[in-house]
């Protein structure tokens, strides 16, 4: 009876917290000035517009992804299928892409939080510790706010995938990846015997996870292989190991199933990175290095400190579940500094075992009657970082920061390109607008994203030079013709250093306020 009631409470809390992440977006939409609109993104809008650009490709009928921020994107590839599919949903429903984006984010967050509750129940010995760990996952963060005066940027302030609440707050694919990650872990650890249903479930979940967040397969396999090798060593040491049991063990079979389910995607992605010219350049730039260790020490804060106490002081290694949690935390901490370009992405999923271990430590090191007080202090110290992230976005919107706000005239220029511009044409525009043009039109740009524009540094320098009033007009026009630029989008910031005299050689086809679109006649 209590279990059923707790599950209902967990569902209500999961939905409630997921909806809570929507409030700052609603507030932002209500505080913008009358002549502008909220972009729809409060965390990393540069990537946010790239997601809309991918959705636009899907809604435009494409199944294959083409780099929208590349003048020469090359052949299409089966990448970012999640956002391509969301674009298909836009077509089916007729709803706005941004609405679908946030609606899916809320659904994925609900799923992640509820699966997190199911995960926690497997490792908490009492109802009290179960709910404590779950509440910590729902609302907790680290102590990154304490590192600010010391010049330390904690991961809980700038790596949203490392904190469940911020994963739910950031985008649709982080919470979906978290839900899939935990769902696979639950299926593996609940494997008492091997069945075809378990095989199908693991195969499908690993296939989807490999499509959405492929590097998380490396984390999953690494966690469970290291755990099982530990278990194997114990059996061998105690002379209880039977070689014939290895091939029938449900966990080892589960690991093989995950590899089988994800291998096609992983192999395909690898081949793309070495054979597809544009995508290989994108992959070489797609570097998300971890911060210095102090960033993670502050960023995971109390949960990391207590988890380490649990690992080294509580003898949890004497139980198989304890050995799994130790293997999990150890492997992910090591991967944060692995010689791999996406180091910080490996932080996704680490907070879940840390929260469980932290509550275990609290239960052991404080007296029975003081547990609630100690937990309240831990939670209270863990929430400010989330509030700082939210507040910084709201303050930027209130200040009409152009990174988060789109002026009406600016948006009208995007609408014109989407409705009247020749599909697939190249647009010359500055860095800010270049990031947004592919989100609202089927145009390509010379530069628009630090990762998804091949040779990004050189391309950004090219754009800045072409839009400089100091360059000879004849040279600019000749170069623009060679680059096959069809349209030029300019705004007020492009004339701060002087008039672009070479625009007189182009035909103005749209104008509103301080924004204009020019067509380059061949």
Description:
By secondary structure, the chain is mainly alpha-helical. It folds into two domains: 2-31 and 96-394, no CATH class; 407-519. Helix content is 63%, strand content 5%. It is built from 24 helices and seven strands. The protein has helices spanning 2-20, 23-31, 45-59, 81-93, 97-121, 127-139, 144-147, 155-158, 164-170, 173-189, 196-212, 215-237, 243-246, 250-275, 277-285, 293-313, 320-335, 351-365, 371-382, 384-398, 408-420, 431-440, 456-466, 473-482; strands at residues 36-38, 405-407, 426-428, 444-445, 485-490, 507-512, 515-519. The strands form two sheets. The protein has a five-stranded mixed beta sheet with strand order 4-3-5-7-6, sandwiched between helices. A two-stranded antiparallel sheet has the order 1-2. Strand 3 (426-428), helix 22 (431-440) and strand 4 (444-445) form a beta-alpha-beta unit. It starts with a helix and ends with a strand.
